[in-house]
Write a structure and sequence with these properties.
This protein has about 280 residues and is mostly helical. It has helices at about 30-40, 55-85, 90-110, 115-120, 125-130, 140-145, 155-165, 165-170, 170-180, 200-205, 210-230, 230-250, 255-265, and strands spanning about 185-190, 195. The chain has two domains: about 25-175 and about 235-275, Oligopeptidase f, N-terminal domain (Butyryl-CoA Dehydrogenase, subunit A, domain 3, Up-down Bundle), CATH 1.20.140.70; about 185-230, putative peptidase helix hairpin domain like (Helix Hairpins, Orthogonal Bundle). It is built from 13 helices and two strands. It is elongated.
């Protein structure tokens, strides 16, 4: 009996075959230190509340702070996401990513007043801001923001949407954990007669096999697992669709696809704070 060729555990993979995250953080301890510093900055959003109409310099100070928070969040979130992707069954990095998303939701909530406060300014002042040299680095973002005015809600409504971001992402998380961690696809014998573990990683290799019989077995064995969990997958899809429809209605769009398009056009914290909404 030939030994089954299984996927190696993460700690058994050669370092040359793994991604290098040192450009983000050298290790988990450095991430933890940066995360703690970043999290302490979130309450400082309150200092800018109610000041965005005081002139270009005041708005530029807020946007500079917001941009700094957002850039750090991108680094923290990317590191946590990639670490989680290494092994979706590793609860340590699931917790790391969960902590980041929870803090990011609080940051979005804290910053949720920025969009409605800017758009609440008179048109003459907005035009003045667009021409101000202090706001030159943010001109494109502000122009996009002005176009987004019909879909911006009041301060309290924006805050409520920001608070929902973690909950709105639940369907995606369920789908990801099921398909990337919990589903087991068994084994397939390759052209050399070796038993190889079938997985998301090896599936494409089997589909490129010169043997039509191997390609057929791999295809059916892989999708048998999806068929065996069709009700759970359908429920996750329904939850995702309902989320998109909800955000489309909440933001006065005719179609949920428009929410996705608007997000792709937006940039920085000036994009929708309800990040789970598309």
């Amino acid at each position: 009996m030939s030994k089954t060729k299984k996927l190696p555990a993460r700690n058994q993979v050669k370092s040359a075959d793994t991604w290098d995250l040192s450009s983000l953080f050298q290790n988990d301890d450095e991430w933890e230190q940066a995360f703690a510093r970043w999290e302490k900055q979130i309450p400082k959003y309150d200092a800018f509340r109610g000041t965005l109409g005081d002139g270009p310099a005041a708005l530029a100070a807020c946007l500079k702070f917001d941009s700094r928070i957002d850039r750090t969040a991108e680094r923290l979130g990317t590191y946590a996401m990639l670490k989680t992707s290494e092994d979706l069954a590793d609860s340590r990095y699931q917790r790391m990513e969960g902590r980041f998303h929870h803090a990011a939701a609080r940051a979005a909530e804290a910053a949720s007043y920025i969009r409605p406060e800017i758009l609440g300014l008179p048109k003459a002042k907005l035009d003045e801001y667009l021409d101000a040299k202090e706001l030159r680095p943010y001109r494109l973002s502000l122009e996009r923001l002005v176009r987004y005015k019909p879909h911006t809600l009041s301060r309290n409504e924006e805050k409520l949407l920001a608070m929902q971001s973690e909950m709105a992402d639940a369907a995606h998380k369920v789908f990801s954990q099921l398909t990337d961690a919990d589903l087991k696809f068994g084994t397939i014998r390759n052209e050399k007669g070796q038993l190889v573990e079938l997985s998301n990683a090896t599936f494409s290799n089997f589909l490129h096999s010169p043997s039509r019989a191997i390609r057929r077995r791999a295809f059916h064995k892989f999708y048998d697992q999806f068929q065996g969990h069709e009700n759970t997958l359908a429920a996750a899809l329904a939850g995702s669709v309902q989320k998109d429809v909800y955000y489309a209605k909440a933001r006065n769009y005719q179609r949920s696809r428009s929410v996705v398009i608007s997000r792709q056009r937006a940039a920085g914290r000036l994009r929708q704070p309800d990040r789970g909404g598309a």
